[in-house]
Specification:
Number of strands: 26
Radius of gyration: 23 Å
Number of helices: 17
Mean pLDDT: 90
Helix content: 25-40%
Shape: globular
Largest sheet: 9 strands, mixed
């Protein structure tokens, strides 16, 4: 692919003015006007972009969760209180890492913006993590502070002694409600949902953090473009999760890129987004938080998306124009009787990402709601969005066109570029300002993922059609996607192999109507009477729920190559 003389340098950090893919193939396929809307070098950092939105939309609703709504003015004030507390009452300093571990509560965006104002690096952490997973992430990221939901504090108590975390801020579900309502609802919730006893002596209640922080204004930091803003952890085919370093510029770029694609459809200050995807997932973090704040949208956070009745109640309470989901969620809602009772007359955009969208699901959703799904493609290492279907030119079965200022190519097994628009598929590579700075303290892994010219190898097999639309054909990696979450075989096999009656194992993904893929593990046992229920219980002790295998199959041996490598592909295809 040809490069414009001002095209991005390695890792997308170079000049960007008037950049667009000028190769002959792309000349008539990419709307040149969108490029003018995406200039990440116009801003020094995320808050420089977002502060204008906080002021412009001050009196509009910003986020709602479980009946609690805060305006943009309140988001600005509460996040400043949070930043001030961290700066004046703790030893956490600019550039330090703070982990946020909670579901979709109004507190989450308050903490995100507060951390950004204080110049901290956000480490989004899944509240469903096991102690093993938490300990690894906290230590690998060298986390200094943690904001955590009270419901999982018993696990945090056990993990803390193995970490360097100094500040623990504990929040309850209704901490952002008014004083009387807060006490009543938090007490009622504790009686309804069992919260295990815990003892974290140096912890501070979230409500106290805000009240103490209000005593003095924060010192607003101004990080440089290349400063890391988020350490977003993603799995690896060779072991434990690693942190993708997403810089201020990476996230500004992706926010502007997403905004540019929506430009003809969305109206500033007039949109309401239903956001069931957790903010700790990079897809939701960038789309449902960063990009939506930029346009002054009202974001309705769904804290418990599996409770479909409560989910539908939230949708009935807020006339919505946008919806962000993924295949698993769409399927669940399509099968739920109340979907037909909801009013979709104002819905103008439905986004899908994180996992492949099944054609029958897309067709059923459009039939029942009258709104086609805009499927996109991304990965953590790209902040995450790479391509998306233009809202007014959706092509089902594809992940759309590359975002503005994003270059794509496909390569053969030797890394040589293949002709675009042909019938030959290859590994998808990309380059653009949203590509990560690298993996945290993983130079070798970074070099394997991003070459000297800034091209990121995605590990996905793609076909780029003559019209420029991208189809994802397969994966080079053995990664398994369960309900939008990445699961890596090595991690699962490591846990299964810890069982004293297991000799070896191999994990693969198998098709599943609800989760897209499900985990199946083939096991070579020491004893033929090994209980599969015992294996499942063993996995539940060490793995997050979505990583627990759905199926186990005992084998006398596993298929292997000449050098002894387990051939997962044969197991996955049923050929062994």
């Amino acid at each position: 692919m040809e490069r414009h003389e001002d095209a991005p340098a390695p890792n997308g950090q170079g000049p960007t003015r008037n950049v667009r893919m000028t190769g002959e193939f792309w000349a008539d396929k990419m709307p040149a006007a969108l490029d003018a809307l995406v200039d990440p070098d116009r801003y020094e950092n995320l808050m420089e972009v977002l502060e204008a939105a906080l002021e412009r939309y001050a009196d509009l609703p910003a986020f709602t969760s479980d009946g609690i709504t805060i305006t943009y003015r309140e988001l600005d004030e509460y996040s400043s209180d949070f930043a001030s507390y961290l700066q004046h009452e703790t030893n956490i300093r600019e550039g330090d890492r703070i982990a946020l571990q909670m579901p979709n509560l109004v507190q989450y965006p308050v903490c995100i913006f507060g951390a950004l104002k204080a110049g901290l690096v956000i480490v989004n952490t899944n509240p469903l993590y096991t102690e093993r997973e938490m300990e690894h992430q906290f230590n690998d990221a060298q986390v200094r502070g943690l904001v955590v939901l009270e419901n999982i504090c018993d696990k945090v108590e056990r993990v803390l002694p193995q970490t360097n975390i100094e500040t623990v801020i504990i929040t309850r579900l209704y901490d952002m409600a008014g004083a009387m309502r807060r006490v009543f609802r938090n007490t009622a919730m504790r009686s309804k949902v069992s919260v295990a006893d815990y003892n974290i002596p140096l912890s501070v209640p979230f409500t106290k953090v805000l009240s103490q922080g209000r005593r003095s204004p924060p010192i607003i930091t101004k990080p440089l473009r290349d400063a890391v803003a988020v350490l977003q952890y993603t799995g690896g085919t060779t072991g434990l999760a690693k942190g993708a370093m997403l810089t201020q510029r990476n996230l500004v770029a992706n926010m502007l890129q997403v905004r540019a694609v929506m430009e003809e459809v969305v109206e500033e200050g007039r949109e309401t987004l239903i956001a069931p995807l957790p903010l700790y997932h990079i897809y939701s973090f960038t789309l449902c938080c960063m990009a939506m704040v930029h346009i002054g949208a009202h974001v309705v956070l769904i804290s418990h998306p599996r409770d479909l009745d409560a989910f539908c109640d939230e949708m009935e309470a807020h006339p919505y124009t946008l919806f962000a989901g993924l295949n698993t969620l769409f399927r669940a809602l399509i099968d739920y009787p109340r979907l037909g009772e909801l009013d979709f007359s104002q819905l103008k955009l439905t986004f899908s990402g994180a996992m492949a969208l099944q054609p029958e699901v897309a067709a059923s959703w459009e039939k029942q709601t009258g709104c086609a799904i805009c499927e996109g493609y991304g990965l953590t290492e790209a902040s995450p969005v790479v391509s998306v279907n233009p809202p007014r030119a959706i092509q089902a079965g594809t992940v759309g066109l590359p975002l503005p200022r994003t270059e794509l190519r496909i390569t053969d097994a030797d890394g040589q570029a293949l002709p675009l628009g042909g019938e030959e598929a290859g590994e998808l590579w990309l380059r653009g300002p949203q590509v990560m700075a690298g993996y945290w303290q993983q130079e070798a892994e970074t070099a394997d993922a991003v070459d000297a010219e800034g091209w990121l190898r995605t590990g996905d097999i793609a076909l780029i059609q003559p019209d420029g639309y991208v189809r994802i054909v397969d994966r080079v990696k053995d990664m398994i996607i369960v309900s939008g979450f990445n699961v890596y075989p090595n991690e699962i096999e490591e846990i299964v192999d810890l069982h004293p009656d297991v000799i070896e194992s191999a994990a693969v993904g198998v098709p599943d109507a609800r989760s897209g893929e499900a985990l199946k593990v083939f096991v070579v046992a020491r004893k033929p009477e090994l209980s599969l229920k015992d294996l499942e219980d063993h996995c539940r002790k060490h793995l997050t729920g979505y990583k627990v295998p759905r199926q186990f199959e005992l084998r006398d041996a596993l298929p292997k190559s000449d050098i002894g490598k387990v051939l997962r592909r044969l197991l996955r295809d049923g050929a062994a």
